């Protein structure tokens, strides 16, 4: 069995995931969001696209069987297991600006955007290129009538997981989310495994 | 009174819009979508971000009074008038791949993605950098329970418009949308005016 890695609270990592490998993202303590970004390893200008993915899925909530597409309409990842069934693919990772604009009483934090930018820099991904991430376990119910949404605590319980299979050679950026509203106000680690 | 420009069916243009200027997008014949993209003129790596904008608006349907943000969390445009109240900011402009994947019986077309890429190339915007556009008049109701959405004909009637004020010096990409489902199956021009 492969090693389980731990991402400390409010931080992020980047690593290689080869075509055919599986990535399991585990919310070991429950109620914690993990922002996931995928970049094509042979050309980092090709990266995860919420707009293409949602268009092809015809749904804003994705789960087992759904495919995550790149901006070039290639499949990057398939979701092959999902204990939770509620993730967000509408919102950009929080940044220092998000904290300034949305959290009056919180000290600014570089957020998942800053953590992803830092971790992905060595692979040649620039800060500006970071798009909407696939926000594992993030619970953003939308009111279809008004279009209003809320950011509620995740539905994930301790040990819940989501598993992806890579369909091309990728670099993955993955965080333990830093935004108070997304995690019910407390920051926990995120675990992951590559098989 | 300023000149009204016409974008022929299934095509796109790019033009400069200075801070303080107003852009009116007019659906002169009714039931036609126009994809709008904004890029900061002094650094084209700064461009429209659906993920930031929706996060700050806390709504997926935007209208008068809402602000469209860049990937750097700067306000690019404000919506100052809106006859329709239903636009899409979830889906990426259609591309040739979209036609291959979604329209079995349609000859492939470069779509709004290709039209935007072509029009914006002279300003240094690359094909891969084109994000989710603000799709004026595009009618994508979401079922909040299931997350499923439909692409329905626009609610816009002949002459309906949406007006934006630029809050920085911009390059705008604007199309008359090419996708059958988005326009009730017929392709019409889009008009615009700069004041």
Q: What would the keywords be for this entry?
A:
195 residues, homodimer, globular, 3 helices, six-stranded antiparallel β-sheet, 13% helix, four-stranded antiparallel β-sheet, alpha+beta
Describe the model.
The structure is a homodimer of 195-residue chains. With 195 residues, chain A is of the alpha+beta class. Chain A has one domain (4-194). Chain A is built from 3 helices and 10 strands. In chain A, the strands form 2 sheets. Chain A has a 6-stranded antiparallel sheet with strand order 1-10-3-8-6-5. A 4-stranded antiparallel sheet of chain A has the order 2-9-4-7, covered by helices on one side. In chain A, strand 5 (67-69) and strand 6 form a beta hairpin. The longest helix of chain A has 10 residues, at 111-120. Chains A and B meet through helix 1 and helix 2 of A and helix 1 and helix 2 of B.
Mean residue pLDDT of chain A: 95
pLDDT under 50 segments of chain A (min length 5)?
none
Name the overall outline of chain A.
globular
Structural class of chain A: alpha+beta
Indicate the proportion of strand residues of chain A: 25-35%
Q: What's the helix and strand layout?
A:
Two copies of one chain form a homodimer.
Chain A: E1 4-7, E2 12-17, E3 22-27, E4 34-40, H1 50-57, E5 67-69, E6 75-82, H2 96-102, H3 111-120, E7 134-136, E8 160-166, E9 170-175, E10 190-194
Antiparallel strand pairs in A: 1-10, 2-9, 3-8, 3-10, 4-7, 4-9, 5-6, 6-8
